[in-house]
Design brief:
The protein is an all-beta fold. The protein is 0% helix and 48% strand. It contains no helices and nine strands. The strands form two sheets. It has a five-stranded antiparallel sheet with strand order 1-2-9-4-7, with no helix packed on it. It is globular and about 35 Å long.
């Protein structure tokens, strides 16, 4: 068993511009805690991993493909591999992204 605290993991600013991230990798998955300020925006053209996003704090105008909705605290969304997704923070936000298989791109590397 391995215990960890996201707040003690290295802070990463380079995954998405304007967002702060803390990343934990296992053999098969990546878990990323993210936070962004109000009006923070991003767009992702998709990636090979399945993704589950859980909003822990705030409101986020989020889209996956052509579907849009306002995510609120504890809302969860599933994103298929290679689905376009993104959104805009309506308040300060905080949440978790869970990826399978784990993200191996350079920007997700933890030193």
């Amino acid at each position: 068993m391995h215990w960890f605290n996201f707040d003690k993991l290295s802070l990463m600013k380079h995954v998405w511009q304007g967002e702060l991230n803390r990343i934990f990798h296992t053999k098969n998955i990546t878990i990323m805690k993210f936070s962004g300020k109000r009006w923070y925006k991003f767009h992702d053209d998709g990636h090979k991993s399945e993704q589950i996003t859980i909003l822990l704090k705030g409101k986020f105008n989020f889209y996956v493909g052509n579907e849009k909705r306002i995510m609120k605290k504890w809302d969860t969304i599933f994103i298929e591999p290679y689905e376009k997704h993104g959104g805009e923070a309506l308040t300060d936000i905080e949440g978790l992204d869970v990826f399978f298989p784990k993200r191996t791109e350079e920007k997700y590397r933890v030193d």
